[in-house]
Amino acid sequence: MRNVIRYSLKLIPLLLFALALSTKAQDARLHFEHLTGLETKARDVVEVNIDGKVLDLAKRVLVKVNDPDAKKVGQAIAGLQAIYVRAYTFENAGEYNPGDIDQIRAQLQGPGWQRLANVRSKKDNQKIDVYTMFTGDTMSGVAVIMSQDKAVALVNVIGPIDIDLLAELGGKLNIPEMDIDTGGSKDKPKN
Questions:
Q1: Contact in structure between 90 and 43 (CB atoms under 8 Å)
Q2: pTM of the model
Q3: DSSP class per residue in 42-89
Q4: How distant, in Å, are the alpha carbons of 39, 43, 85, 101, 147 from that of 82?
Q5: What distances in angstroms separate CA 6 from CA 51, 59, 140, 167, one per listed residue?
Q6: For every one of its 191 residues, what pLDDT tens digit does the chain have, with 9 covering 90 and above?
Q7: Cα separation of 174 and 183, whole Å?
Q8: Is 34 left (phi over 0), alpha (psi -120 to 50) or beta?
């Protein structure tokens, strides 16, 4: 479970980066309601719902603090509508129904969703899928599904992020540095 959570947390900057190209959000929310079977069988359950007033409060606080980097994070996520995370750890392999996760993957076959990454490993039967949702040319959502024999993690981020501000914060506030070509005349790194 620690590895799944660690991978989930490491993917958040990737999700933010992927969302950065969007200019408006649509309903990119995944429906996790049918996952109650996973929750009842899991040894450990993590459920994070950051939306509505809680997200608005976080955005307001970030833009009002005296730390200029925190203000930039607040500005970068100003259009974000929600972040949903579900993580389940099981005592033994095979304790959950893979069909429950396949129902989430089926939602990602709907209009607007496109697969960005697909990773498969025979070790622990690990599968990682990253999807983006587009409305026209605008990205409005990201979903990550990670599953293995004893753990499942799902991340759903909805809304746009300002990529230029996020890139400016690279290397600060635990945000990895991103080498993003924004059309300027920056020197290319040497190999």
A1: yes
A2: 0.69
A3: -SEEEEEEEEHHHHHHHHHHHHHSS-HHHHHHHHHTTT--EEEEEEEE
A4: 21, 26, 10, 21, 22
A5: 22, 24, 25, 22
A6: 566 555 555 555 555 554 443 333 447 899 998 888 899 999 999 998 888 888 888 878 877 888 877 777 777 777 778 889 999 999 999 899 998 999 999 999 988 898 988 999 988 889 999 898 876 666 678 899 999 999 999 989 888 755 555 566 555 544 545 444 444 444 444 44
A7: 25
A8: alpha
Q: Classify residue 37 by its DSSP letter.
A: H
Tell me the C-alpha distance between 146 and 144, whole Å.
Answer: 7
CA pair distance 45, 54, nearest whole angstrom: 21
> Structural domain boundaries of the chain?
2-168
Question: Who's near 12: CB < 8 A, 6+ residues apart?
Answer: 155, 157
- Cα-Cα-Cα-Cα torsion 91, 96, 98, 100, nearest 10 degrees, comes to -130
Residue at token pair 């026209």: 136
As a residue count, the chain comes to: 191
Q: Which amino acid is at 57?
A: L
Please tell me whether residue 148 adopts helix, strand or coil conformation.
strand
